[in-house]
């Protein structure tokens, strides 16, 4: 649900009147003062600067009050106050009340989080050098401390108690509470467990052996553990370990990561990067043994990284979330009178599903095991040992699946006979979406991407060709290889010429590092990466986007960039160049002076957009999207139309940004505010219905943007920012606008900052509202194409050619 966003330099405190002239990085906050989310230049800082504390962006206009390592590369967060209830990017406050209660309020004044503490006398809020955020009294006693309420990380000197729990985040860059926990169990032993609404289970230490074999003891009920500054960890259950770089010096953290693995990290402050210096030992801590990873029926295997797949005849429940597992193509119905009727099994070699055994028997034949499972509707399948023991394990549920060559088990999954027949022609299913003229796998992380079988097929094809032409290859092998190598080199060289002929440059990493002064001035961030302002050697000001998660090789990256580089329209941000330097992938765009539309529309900017300006922004944005959808030689979807991706130049002319990004990503790692491509509030209904996505999804998002232009309200967080005059509260902007439009109460929809008295303005409002409501129709077939939107907004009085080249 959240983007992995750029890090703003955090925010420090206080009312503008009191602290406007104060330097950034204050040591304390005193009663009656607050930290404002809008102030990007203020933040609390620990005495030696190791830690900072302020509002951390976790999504589009969404923030959590946090603590992070100041000198880590991506400002690694170690604590959050409101990780599951982010606040608005406007008017949210962290206030220290005079009674010592520390309160976090949202834009509408709602209390989102508080310490619920009271005290008399002098108090203050401080961030200690240990990373502990504390409220202290005049005697320097702690009234409240963040160390008592960890999120996913334990810091050195932070006591881990019987009431403490580390809870992973949901995904990389998604800070919501996940399903993996580290805590003491009821038997006084530290465990890692998977705890979802439908399933819970310990996966470390290995539950198949006793506590004592694992080197633990359940007899100490004090339940306390600590990580010291040397990198040593010690617990009351006799769990002990040391970092591989044990000793004073490195900053460290112990974190339960989103993949369920507990890791100790050490910080290299010269680079800002973290190094793993310890992970739990034991056979059941490797990623494919983490419970819940691939969901019901899902199978984890290494290829070479952990990857999830569905058995033949099964498809994913949710294309964006592997933890929801797989489902059969046909419903599995069991006849309780005759359970074996119309049922059969799919056999999977070297595969097992851990746990949920319905029974156990040894010295069984496979047929005996099949008949046993067929005799009961409770049995969903069985595992059969191939070590000669004849062990049979019927299963009540098929969860925690994994496949390894060393697994001496064959898994049999119960299916209908029709499904068994159809599954013989199927391979592991891959849920793909045609967006931006490229295939995009909607997965949770690149390491859990679905496994493709195309390489195996290619291998078989090559094998056939080699077998047929073996004699020819013997005679001309060397000559063929030289020709092949020469052609490959020619293709790469030609690709470089094509890129240069298109009028943009290939930059080296060092050039862009110099242009951005070591990526110093961050001007924005989205789901695909961080954007920095820079100046090239020729004096041109540019915006450099560092891409996150692009795994292509250089040749493939060039091919995709060449398509984006061909796109040229006055209402689209121009690509000037790129960098493909080893693992560094960057795009260099023209710098658009006035930034994104949301800063004018939703902030307390002194420059209020007039109706005429808003109308022209709607027209220009429509033209840019129409060009992408219908006029380009390569059909391109945007998939994330929102004000943050509409930039305004010095003349307030709109330029759509971030188009074509999905071409560079074979898998979506951006979670946004939903686990599909895009941002909550702007997503068309078909995203949630797993329907094929086409240009009408962009049309819907555009319609939401037009409603925002009219109302001045943000579609995201609409519930928290919108309270109707009649006392009710709406959560859906479209519904809210439609209800008022049907009642003829258009004035209640309009941004109160607009002046709309004259007839011409009223006519423009009428057109904008009509276009917006057409674009947000639930049935996408009723939405107009973007070219039709341009006609409706302009009367189509302009010539058909824009003079732009695709």
Automatic annotation (TrEMBL):
Query: What's the source species for this entry?
Result: Cucumis melo
Record-linked Gene3D superfamilies: Bulb-type lectin domain, Phosphorylase Kinase, domain 1, Transferase(Phosphotransferase) domain 1
Membrane-related topology note: Single-pass type I membrane protein
**Statement: the UniProt record of this protein carries the keyword Ribonucleoprotein:** no
Please indicate if the UniProt record lists Transferase as a keyword: yes
Q: Known EC number(s)?
A: 2.7.11.1
Q: Which residues form the EGF-like domain?
A: 284-320
Query: Which Pfam families does the entry link to?
Result: B_lectin, Pkinase, S_locus_glycop
The residues covered by the Apple domain are: 334-416
* One GO-annotated biological process of the protein: recognition of pollen
Q: Name one GO molecular function term.
A: ATP binding
Residues that hold ATP according to the record: 545
User: Start and end of every Bulb-type lectin domain?
Assistant: 20-148
Gene name?
LOC103486357
Transmembrane domains' residue ranges:
458-481
Lineage, opening ranks = Eukaryota, Viridiplantae, Streptophyta, Embryophyta, Tracheophyta
Keyword tags: ATP-binding, Disulfide bond, EGF-like domain, Glycoprotein, Kinase, Membrane, Nucleotide-binding, Receptor, Serine/threonine-protein kinase, Signal, Transferase, Transmembrane, Transmembrane helix
Q: What is this protein called?
A: Receptor-like serine/threonine-protein kinase
């Amino acid at each position: 649900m959240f983007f992995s966003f750029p890090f703003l330099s955090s925010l420090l405190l206080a009312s503008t009147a009191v602290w406007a002239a104060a330097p950034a990085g204050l040591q304390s906050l005193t009663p009656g003062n607050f930290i404002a989310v809008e102030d990007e230049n203020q933040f609390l800082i620990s005495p030696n600067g190791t830690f900072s504390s302020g509002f951390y962006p976790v999504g589009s206009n969404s923030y959590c009050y946090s603590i992070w390592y100041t000198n880590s590369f991506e400002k690694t967060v170690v604590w959050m106050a409101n990780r599951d209830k982010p606040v608005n990017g406007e008017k949210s406050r962290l206030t220290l009340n005079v009674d010592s209660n520390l309160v976090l309020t949202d834009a509408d004044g709602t209390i989102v989080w508080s310490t619920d503490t009271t005290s008399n006398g002098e108090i203050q809020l401080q961030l200690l050098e240990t990373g502990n955020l504390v409220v202290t009294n005049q005697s320097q006693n702690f009234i409240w401390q963040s160390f008592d309420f960890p999120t996913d990380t334990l810091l050195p000197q932070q006591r881990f108690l019987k009431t403490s729990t580390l809870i992973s985040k949901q995904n990389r860059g998604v800070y919501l509470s996940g399903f993996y926990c580290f805590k003491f169990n009821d038997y006084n032993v530290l465990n890692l467990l998977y705890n979802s609404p439908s399933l819970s289970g310990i996966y470390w230490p290995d539950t198949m052996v006793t506590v004592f074999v694992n080197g633990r003891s359940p007899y100490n009920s004090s339940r306390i553990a600590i990580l010291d500054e040397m990198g040593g960890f010690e617990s009351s259950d006799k769990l002990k370990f040391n970092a591989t770089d044990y000793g004073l010096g490195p900053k460290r953290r112990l974190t339960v990561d989103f993949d369920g693995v507990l890791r100790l990290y050490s910080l290299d402050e010269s680079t800002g990067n973290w190094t793993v210096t310890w992970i739990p030992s034991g056979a059941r801590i490797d990623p494919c043994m983490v419970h819940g990873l691939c969901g019901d029926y899902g199978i984890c295997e290494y290829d070479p990284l952990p990857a999830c797949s569905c058995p033949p005849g099964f498809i994913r429940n949710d294309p964006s979330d592997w933890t929801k597992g797989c489902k059969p193509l046909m419903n599995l119905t069991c006849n309780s009178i005759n359970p074996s009727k119309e049922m059969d099994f799919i056999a999977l070699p070297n595969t097992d599903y851990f746990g949920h055994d319905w029974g156990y028997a040894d010295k069984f034949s496979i047929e005996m095991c099949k008949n046993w499972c067929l005799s009961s509707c409770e049995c969903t399948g069985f595992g059969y040992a191939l070590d000669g023991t004849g062990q049979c394990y019927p299963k009540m549920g098929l969860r925690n699946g994994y496949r390894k060559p060393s697994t001496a088990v064959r898994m049999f999954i119960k299916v209908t006979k029709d499904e068994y027949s159809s599954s013989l022609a199927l391979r592991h299913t891959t849920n793909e979406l045609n967006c931006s003229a490229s295939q995009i796998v909607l997965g949770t992380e690149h390491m859990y991407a679905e496994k493709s079988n195309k390489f195996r097929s290619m291998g078989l094809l090559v094998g056939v060709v080699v077998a047929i032409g073996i004699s020819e290859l013997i005679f001309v092998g060397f000559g063929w290889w030289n020709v092949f190598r020469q052609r490959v080199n020619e293709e790469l060289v030609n690709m470089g010429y094509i890129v240069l002929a298109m009028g943009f440059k290939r930059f080296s990493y060092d050039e862009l590092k110099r242009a951005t002064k070591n990526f110093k001035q961050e001007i924005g961030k989205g789901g695909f990466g961080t954007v920095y302002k820079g100046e090239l050697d020729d004096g041109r000001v540019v915006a450099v986007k560092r891409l996150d998660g692009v795994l292509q090789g250089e040749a493939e990256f060039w091919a995709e960039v060449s398509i984006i580089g061909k796109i040229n329209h006055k209402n689209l941000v121009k690509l000037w160049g790129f960098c493909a330097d080893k693992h560094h992938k960057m795009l260099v765009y023209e710098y658009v002076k006035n930034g994104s539309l949301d800063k004018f529309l939703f902030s307390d900017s002194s420059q209020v957009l007039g109706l005429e300006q808003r109308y022209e922004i709607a027209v220009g944005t429509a033209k840019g999207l129409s060009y992408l959808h219908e006029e380009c030689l390569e059909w391109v979807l945007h998939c994330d139309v929102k004000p943050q991706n509409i930039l305004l130049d010095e003349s307030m002319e709109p330029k759509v940004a971030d188009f074509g990004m999905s071409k560079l990503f074979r898998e979506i790692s951006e979670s946004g505010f939903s686990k599909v491509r895009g941002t909550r509030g702007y997503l068309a209904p078909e995203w949630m219905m797993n329907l094929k996505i086409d240009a009408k999804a962009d049309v819907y998002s555009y319609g939401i943007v037009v409603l925002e232009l009219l109302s001045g309200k943000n579609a995201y967080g609409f519930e928290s920012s919108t309270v109707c005059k009649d006392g009710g509260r709406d959560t859906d902007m479209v519904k809210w606008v439609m209800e008022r439009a049907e009642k003829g109460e258009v004035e209640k929809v309009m941004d109160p900052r607009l002046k709309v008295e004259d007839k011409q303005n009223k006519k423009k409002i009428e057109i904008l509202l009509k276009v917006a409501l057409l674009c947000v129709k639930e049935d996408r077939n009723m939405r107009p194409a973007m070219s039709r939107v341009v006609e409706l907004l302009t009367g189509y009085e302009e010539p058909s050619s824009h003079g732009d080249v695709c």
